[in-house]
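User: Hey, quick favor. My workstation is busy. Could you predict this chain's structure for me?
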Amino acid sequence: MTGKIFKLYENTVLKHPIVSIILIICIILGMGSYARNFHLDASADSLLLENDQDLKYYRSINSQYGSGDFLVIAYTPKQALMSTETLTDLSRLTEELKALDRVDSVLSILDVPLIDSPRVSLNQLSKNIPTLADPETDKELALKEFLTSPLYKNMLVSPDAKTTALQITFEPDLKHRTLLQARNALREKKLAGPLSEQDQIALDQATQAYDAYSRVVADRDAQDIAKIRSIMAPYRDIKANLFLGGVSMIVADMIDFIQSDLTSFGLGVLTFLVAMLILIFRRKQWVILPLICCFSAVLFMFGFLGFAGWKVTVVSSNFTSLLLIITLSLCVHLMVRYNELYHEMPEADHFTRVKEMVRSKAIPSIYTALTTIVAFVSLLTSDIRPVIDFGWMMAIGITFALLLSFIIFPAGLALCKAPVEFNPKFDITGKITRACIHLVEKRSNVTLFAFALIAIVSIFGISRLTVENKFIDYFKPTTEIYQGMELIDRQLGGTTPLSIVLDADPDFYKAQKEADQTTEEDPFADDFFGDSDSDSGLSGSSYWYSSYQIDTIEKIHDYLEELPETGKVLSMATTFRMMEMVNDDVPLDNISLSVIHKKLPELIENTLFSPYMSEDGNQLRFSMRVIDSSPTLRRDAFLKQIKTDLIEKFHLKPEQVHLTGMFVLYNNVLQSLFDSQIMTIGVVFLVIMGMFVIQFRSLRLAIIAIIPNLISAATVLGLMGLMNIPLDIMTITIAAITIGIAVDDTIHYIHRFNEELEVDGNYIAAMHRSHDSVGRAMYYTSIIIVAGFSILTFSNFNPTIYFGFFTGIAMLIAMVANLTLLALLLIIWKGKEH
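Assistant: No problem, here it is.
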């Protein structure tokens, strides 16, 4: 610290420790009181790109064709599917589900319309729609229809006839939709130009209203899912195997996983950290003070997030663990430095040693905090809101962790009057640091070769990194989410929705416009064939609802269905095939299309027309479900292949073809990662190297300092590539974490090395003394964190497992690289700066 600042610090914090601690505790408790507003968000919206134009199109298509909030129960009975006992249980389960307050309907094999069990005519269908629940229905014929019908096969009953699906549809939440539309309208207005003060206030209010109600919706959904599971429970194991699926269920379970990890694993990590502190430092002061700092940092951030209204997502859910790492690391370096001073300054009083501890560690600690903040600020370049928020959270959290460590820890230590030095009973640390010295002195060529080899292998591993991610892989095979998604993928037509929307040929609209003008100008124009189905909006001028287009539509449908990654496909081709069945298998012409459509009951109309074609017949929607667990699935290539084939094979114009759905939106997120993150890592390293130049006042030293950090980051990313762990919105943050952790050790080591070098100018001796001082702190920090975070590998949520595993690996790599490669480079490139 500069003289004036340090003097001010000494006169306030060190000379008035009780007042300082009371003031900082008041601030922490004041901010911590807002922790009650802290909440998690695992909704689909939290994983989307900011300002994604595909998102706007997706919402417009949903509003046009409908997108009900529903869950799916995969039901595999112990008895035969069509047995009386199974159907009775299925009926009882359906009625119990329908009795829930928000459930609008429950669709099952019991109540879907049957037209081929036996075949019914159009007149019969318009009068009475037979179902499996009717006593006279032939069960064997019904099962055959479920297995072969264009509408029902691979959707209601699995191909082996052992599993059926129940679709639970909830009542639409109009308030939630209205609040979302109001917020989005103001956001779009803001994108077009600066908002007025009144509009900005309206946007803030709309955002707050939507966020507040979204929390209500999330709690309500979780309660509904709990009720559904309680209804399912008596049927499980004894009568059937049941699995629940659906977006809202996945969201609720992900929140449960995150909450469980925050509580149980948070306590587990804390327990490990306490045990390691006791084992290493063996003094209550060295255990209590750092834990108070860690607890205070976490409480402050929970309160700050609640105060600011920031939602914690799956991306940022591990911010507490990272704050523990950073805060504890700062405290460990202070503890080790005090212990050195206890032996270096045996005649000095306790206050003098505390003051010197702060003076000697302030500058390197500030630089470590700043460089770590830079690493996390790199996340702000992302277009993904949860990643941006995570970067801000860590930047703010690290800043406060630094302040806490240099207020609570020194002030608390100043209040300890008794000597608080520690002497390890078994000097394992000394053996480790001396082994690193041996590698530098006696095995320098081997050490350089080893790191060169690591770098080469890491580059190879990085070349194998992909952003292709399967959502199912977030969960362990033992979880209900995994088992349910796998069953629905394998037996019931896939899980991830994808829509292909085809507009009419642009030339059709021009011809239609000209025809309309001709009709207006010619009073004798013949309109006999004009409005063939005016009540529904379909007419003779419809582009797609025409016998001339049936063959094209069916060929496109078959093409989509034959793709290996595709599950169930529903479209107007399904509708046409069902219409042919009630038309005595006679091919459809324009007249029969019009007649049949007019005679169809409302239920059939809503099932076969509304979801797949616009009211005017000029737009089609192919509803697909993608098999997310397919080993051949490559999202981006899959989407590009579909669009290219539709244009080239079916002679559609590019402006006619639109792909939309959560599958597309999530792919946009994944593809943006390379642009917004991987490319920025190089910029981050340049910025950090610039900070090294400022700190060390040497370009040579800055280059030396950056090399171990490059090795550390490359090793972790390369290991991910070699292990076939894809980059996604969660694993991408590991790179920033690795950089931040490795930089801390580098700064502390070089700062101490330079101090030791000034003693006698001997590089080897400076290395020995640095290893025996700051090297111990680096080892303690690494081993404590690796031990503590190893418990995260027991989570059921794979991103948490990856976080714990790779954070531990990053710590070990950073420690070894700095104690060997960094020290070796400092010795090799010696002389010119000193």
